[in-house]
Amino acid sequence: MTGVDTHEHAHDHPHGWQRWLFATNHKDIGTLYMVFSFVMFLMGGILALLIRAELFQPGLQFFRPEVYNQLVTMHGLMMIFGAIMPAFVGFANWMIPLQIGASDMAFARMNNFSFWLLPPAAILMTASFFSAGGATASGWTMYPPLSLQMGIGMDMTIFAVHIMGASSIMGAINIITTILNMRAPGMTLMKMPMFCWTWLITAYLLIAVMPVLAGAITMTLTDRHFGTSFFNAAGGGDPVMYQHIFWFFGHPEVYIMILPAFGIISQIIPAFARKQLFGYASMVYATASIAILSFIVWAHHMFTTGMPVTGQLFFMYATMLISVPTGVKVFNWVATMWKGAMTFETPMLFAVGFIFVFTIGGFSGLILAVAPIDIQAQDTYYVIAHFHYVLVAGSLFALFAGFYYWVPKWTGFMYNEARGKFHFWNSLIWVNVTFFPMHFLGLAGMPRRYADYPTQFTDFNVVTSIGAFAFGLSQVYFLFAVVLPVIKGGEKAPAKPWDGAEGLEWTVPSPAPFHTFEVPPVVK
Questions:
Q1: Is 198 a catalytic residue?
Q2: Topology of 258-512 in CATH?
Q3: Domain of life here (predicted)?
Q4: Which residues of 35-58 are buried (b: 16+ CB within 10 A; e: fewer)?
Q5: Is 225 a catalytic residue?
Q6: Do the domains spanning 14-247 and 258-512 agree at the CATH topology level?
């Protein structure tokens, strides 16, 4: 090292493939997560378009019903465990150390391991299509008795979900430890950016519920191969018990996929309204109360299983209650924009678009919370419309907003604003053309997971399929017209490209250097 300035760190990290395989730097790992999640997003999207191609007309067009249900099942699993969750973990890896003034994540090698568990799991899941009998066709919820009757593709999926769950738990431990132990001097918990708060709470949710999912699918596995009868009624088991265990994981899971989105939106709106976030403390408490309440609403997915009316009333009221803290957030965002000096660059467009479409998804969820209505709408396209408004128009729009907001910090280059806006308007229009008609299909009684339907549903299905292909093409445009050009170069980004943005991440140069905050900043 003689003669070399030890503060010059360009020499100390591996280059080429080793830099990525052995990555321990939080920025590199964040990038890996995002690349992985986008690949899975495209794969899940292709499955979605195959589903919509089949449903373009009544009658069977391309797939036998069992193959159709394989597509439906794998689309759900890939989008949830392969696209949405890893994308938010990628954002967490990139941004949390920058936002709290930490030099890196707490457990750098575990961080590497938790990422590299994902590609083998994704390969396993995808390869199940080519196994004897094909992929599992039990729905992404993997309900018995269907999941007990599937071929080896079901076992491959169970194994893949186990591996992805282990990855999530390690990522969550890392995030909690980093946030609680590595904040810069002066950065109290109540001074943290909202994105860090939402991820801290999300990480606790992950640690609480991923083992529950692992338990449910392990019991399924032993029912399949080791002679147990947890869910097999012929042996004295109860298939409804699986639903209770699964949804005890599954409902907090939907908040795992939306709370980090709330955090991203809570960073962007103050920046482009040029005001402080309205009611910061109430946002923190609302996030925590959403997380706590999410554990007592699981059986609203099960109103048709014949539970006693007392149970229906409890879960109905609990579900209505959880809409209160969610509403608090929407009011806080609107209040932040109120009388702000707003400009509408692409991140702000996606943030406002998020509030609009997420609110629609929230209201349809409130409608489904009402047990007598839910019993009518159960397993119809109304439910599909509801959760796609929350997850596509919610989680995905927030991820796009966060990408446009932070990509100058990641790459050192500004994206093309006109192309970003083109991507936004196409996404907003086509997401509504795709999913809004599903409300009407569901109310008219069209069941989900069917490859065929009566003729009266044709018109809305045609509209939905056209919207889906246009929305899919908009994301291909995003890849080739926005993402790849901004990685290659373009207009140089200043350290702080948005004049209303606040936070430690804007104090480091763009692109963020390989090592940041080796001397912790002091937060005033």
A1: no
A2: Cytochrome C Oxidase; Chain A (1.20.210)
A3: Bacteria
A4: ebbbbbbebbbebbbbbbbbbbee
A5: no
A6: yes
